[in-house]
Design a protein that fits this description.
single chain, 220 residues, alpha+beta, Glutaredoxin, Antioxidant, Horf6, Chain A, domain 2, 2 domains, five-stranded mixed β-sheet
Length: 220
């Protein structure tokens, strides 16, 4: 089983999707990416998730972020599921869904162990329950976030957007974001920045309840 960590390069792959064949890194291009996986088509929690992601796709577009789903079933199965998602959730998937019937991508990303065979046929959601993962990938193709959820808990995609805002802010400015931070709130000067360097970067100064906790307004 591949053990991926934050900072690793997201494995590249070729796959069929509901929007044609892609090579993952080429498809991402210079964008950020969110890859979120599903244990099987026609599963109830995932139906709500795919519909919700479709309804907030514009939020990802605004952040130069492409979203892509993965289910271990084949692409033609995804098309039927999309109709159910539109009917029950009000929005059909408006982003590609990877078909992974040979479990290639699921294994590549460490969602399933190597020894599980090479077909999605006959597998149940319980067999695939580890395939409930969110990866956020930066334009340099490094993994910036991994979230793994149980079968019964719908994922919080508003949290994924919050993390994206934090990651994109800290990629541009030498800051970190505190607990429960939301876009527009105060941030923390990164620990790697000396006070001398901070004077140049943050000429307005900062609040420091402790020398290592230097709080500044969010850079624009």
């Amino acid at each position: 089983m591949t053990s991926l960590r934050i900072g690793d390069i997201a494995p590249d792959f070729e796959a069929e999707t509901t929007e044609g064949k892609i090579r993952f890194h080429d498809w991402l291009g210079d964008s950020w990416g969110v890859l979120f996986s599903h244990p099987k088509d026609y599963t109830p929690v995932c139906t709500t998730e795919l519909g919700y992601m479709a309804s907030i796709k514009a939020e990802f577009d605004r952040r130069n972020t492409k979203i892509i789903g993965l289910s271990v079933d084949p692409v033609d199965s995804h098309a039927g599921w999309a109709k159910d998602i539109e009917e029950t959730q009000g929005t059909a998937p408006n982003y590609p869904m990877i078909g992974d019937p040979e479990l290639t991508v699921a294994k590549l990303y460490g969602m399933l162990p190597a020894g599980v065979g090479d077909t999605s046929e006959g597998r149940t959601p319980a067999d695939n329950q580890t395939v409930r993962t969110v990866f956020v990938i930066a334009p340099d193709k490094t993994i910036k976030l991994m979230l793994i959820y149980p079968m019964t808990t719908g994922r919080n995609f508003d949290e994924v957007i919050r993390v994206l805002d934090s990651l994109q802010l800290t990629a541009k400015h030498k800051v970190a974001t505190p607990a429960n931070w939301k876009d527009g709130e105060d941030v923390i000067i990164a620990g790697s920045v000396t006070d001398e360097a901070a004077k140049d970067l943050f000429p307005g100064g900062w609040k420091a309840p402790k020398p290592y906790l230097r709080i500044v307004p969010q850079p624009k």
